[in-house]
Design brief:
This protein is α/β, with parallel strands linked by helices. 40% of the residues lie in helices and 17% in strands. Helix 1 runs antiparallel to helix 3, helix 5 packs antiparallel against helix 6 and helix 7 crosses helix 10. The chain is elongated and about 85 Å long.
């Protein structure tokens, strides 16, 4: 079977199973599950894949809702991983569109196994919990879930269509200041005010922003400001996130923010306890060859990218951990216009016809990307060459 015929067969297989994927997406929208509690979503994902011949390994990386589903022969020339996210946000449900991106990966995998022989590709679908809290893929990477993978990919809902997009590195810190309590009116001089240290910290960071490079972001909240107005706070705390694309700029900004915290402690006579959160993530390591392959599939589908730069309107994600160990892409597909992630409006858009068409677009482009990679040794070599340390294409 030639490549163009395989493309058409995959698109037909995808269309035949689209109704099931859309039903799964609608169910997820109506029954959102939070990070690390995606029990029913994970079960339905695994049931879908097992019914299509995938071998299922549940509880990967010690995460109850994570899984790896495998199909194809181990000696196949290409191993591709489709990532299936599943968690929702508190109160506003699937306002990040995981009810579209997860089923899109499942649908792409289902179409591929209908058409490709098992000796042509080893296909993994990796169930990825807890993207919203930033720990799922980090733990999967640490557990070796991506060992032997030649390329990993998923597509994410947006108001943009772009094959190549970036993510900011994100270093997250809990900063706790310890002082000494006393009566705020009778004996204020005997207290050591931990809240003063947090206020000093926030003031220093506000002044620091003027001297930071344009691409650096620092933002945070006071998580503990004391318990009663008539008690000098003996404990106060803030959580600060520092983001940047450039690793050097990120490391420098972190050092300067922590210096602000130490200075606030020194100035107020408090003791600082600083700890970095597990959900910190590095910047995205792009693979432009892989992104260009996805772009070709959009063109074959008659779809044009929107006029958005790769670094426009970006945040952070735990997929960046995956990009550090295997060539990875995370393209956007549109589900409306002028939408913002993590809003009720975005959650509503995932259930509209434009949202469902976005799911199908993502599934088609992902499936065709894996098809081309499975059939082109030169493309696999080019992808591998751009990713030092990844497994060389065979």
């Amino acid at each position: 079977m030639d490549l163009e015929r395989e493309r058409q067969e995959i698109l037909r297989a995808l269309d035949e199973q689209a109704g099931e994927a859309l039903s799964l997406s609608r169910w997820m929208a109506g029954c959102p599950e939070l990070s690390l509690a995606e029990y029913e979503t994970s079960r339905r994902y695994r049931e879908w894949l097992a019914g299509r011949g995938f071998a299922i390994e549940a509880g990967v990386a010690g995460l109850e809702t994570a899984f790896q589903a495998a199909w194809g022969e181990g000696r196949a020339p290409f191993t591709g991983a489709l990532l299936a996210e599943m968690d929702a946000l508190p109160e506003i449900g699937h306002a990040c569109g995981h009810n579209l991106s997860g089923p899109a990966s499942l649908l792409a995998a289902s179409a591929l196994v209908r058409v490709l022989p098992p000796e042509a590709v080893r296909l993994l679908v990796i169930g990825c919990p807890a993207e919203e809290t930033g720990v799922g893929k980090r733990r999967l990477v640490a557990a070796g879930a991506f060992a032997g993978v030649d390329a990993a990919m998923m597509a994410h809902a947006s108001d943009m269509r772009r094959a190549h997009r970036l993510f900011l590195g994100n270093r997250k810190f809990d900063l706790v200041f310890h002082g000494r309590a006393s009566h705020a009116a009778a004996y204020p001089e005997r207290g050591v005010n931990a809240l003063d240290a947090v206020v000093q910290l926030m003031s220093a960071v506000g002044l620091l922003r003027q001297q930071l490079p344009r691409g650096v972001r620092v933002h945070g909240v006071i998580t503990d400001g004391g318990r009663a107005p008539n008690v000098i706070p003996e404990r106060a705390a803030a959580q600060l996130w520092i983001r940047a694309l450039d690793e050097g700029e990120l490391d420098d900004a972190v050092a300067r923010v922590l210096a602000c915290a130490r200075g606030a402690a020194e100035a107020t006579g408090t003791r600082l306890e600083a700890s970095e959160l597990e959900s910190s993530s590095p910047a995205m390591r792009p693979n432009l060859v892989l992104a260009a392959c996805y772009r070709r599939q959009l063109e074959r589908l008659g779809l044009s990218e929107s006029d958005h730069a790769p670094d426009q309107a970006i945040g952070s994600s735990d997929i960046t951990h995956v990009s550090r160990v295997v060539p990875t892409i995370h393209p956007n597909f549109p589900i409306g216009t002028d939408l913002q992630l993590h809003t009720r409006e975005f959650a509503d858009a995932t259930t509209r016809p434009s949202g469902e068409e976005g799911l199908l677009e993502a599934a088609r482009a992902l499936a065709l990307t894996i098809l081309e990679l499975s059939r082109s040794a030169s493309l696999r070599a080019a992808v591998a060459a751009e990713a030092p340390g990844s497994r060389r294409a065979r």
